[in-house]
Design brief:
Helices cover about 30% and strands about 25% of the residues. It has about 150 residues and is an alpha+beta fold. Strands 1-2-3-4 form a 4-stranded antiparallel sheet, covered by helices on one side. A hairpin with a 4-residue loop joins strand 2 and strand 3.
């Protein structure tokens, strides 16, 4: 009876220790399951949040969408750009760099913009891609509520 209780106690402690370790760094990922070890490896080599190519991609896609569907709003400039997460979902997911900042629109208002730079999701999976949301202008509620789904 004592041996069974001791074994149960030891298993419980081991489980709690494993849970604490996984809670401390997100979750445990087996080294063979990392994105770097896939057939088409992904290393997380992504441009920075304030990279001109990334910001021009957001600007071009925002301006195109607005002029085609909604009206005269255009992105003019950005400020307070910063990274809010990198590979936040774990090492076995597609590497993403999450960013946030403010965009000045041609109506004179600043709005928060949240975007992620994602590896191998561009044209034919050869390059990076950007997924973005401007707070208050997510008219189709793709990233609702308030662009929360565009953040980590």
């Amino acid at each position: 009876m004592r041996r069974a209780l001791l074994r149960t106690a030891l298993v419980s402690i081991a489980c709690l220790a494993g849970f604490a370790a996984s809670a401390a760094n997100g979750r445990l990922v087996h080294p063979l399951d990392r994105a770097e070890n896939r057939t088409f490896a992904m290393y997380g080599n992504l441009p920075g949040c304030d990279d001109p190519a990334v910001l021009s991609e957001v600007t071009n896609r925002f301006n195109s969408r607005e002029s085609t569907f909604w009206g005269p709003l255009q992105a003019v400039s950005y400020d307070r750009i910063g990274q809010i997460g990198f590979r936040s979902w774990g090492d076995d997911f597609i590497p993403r760099r999450f960013c946030s900042g403010r965009v000045l629109l041609n109506d004179g208002k600043f709005r928060r913009v949240d975007y992620s730079v994602r590896e191998n999701l561009g044209l034919f999976g050869l390059t990076w891609n950007v997924n973005w949301c401007v707070n208050g202008l997510d008219r189709q509620r793709t990233h609702a509520p308030d662009c929360k789904m565009a953040r980590p």
